[in-house]
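Aim 2 progress update. The chain analyzed this quarter is reproduced below.
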Amino acid sequence: TGALGLEAASRGAAPVQLLEQDADLVKSLQATVQRLKASDQVSVRRTDGVATLRGMPAASVDLVLLDPPFESKLFESALKAARPCLRPTGWLYLEAPESWDEARLAPLGYGLYRHLKAGAVHAHLLQPWPG
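Predicted structure tokens:
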């Protein structure tokens, strides 16, 4: 839905990039951005999000919001791809169908700052660990 990125934009984050592979979802996201008159701070790209993260400059991003489809196998690859582009003071927010604990996150270069569960969603706020 783009809700995470659009919420961040509504709170002053800019620029915000929404990355989506599905063409119909991209059209829907573009329409929402237009309806909200947010095109000056929010862009929508039809692309592979993991590949895009891998191609971003090192330490160039303050916040990454990850919400892969729960049935996908993208969680670990997305976390690995996001780590190098995060600034040392950056944050990563992850929504997942299960809890990710310190033992699972540490090898990927993250520390768990906060976790909460709301219904079937596990929300994690992560900080990059030096390394």
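The longest strand covers residues 86-96. Helices lie at 3-10, 23-35, 49-54, 75-82, 102-105. These observations will guide the mutagenesis experiments scheduled for the next reporting period.
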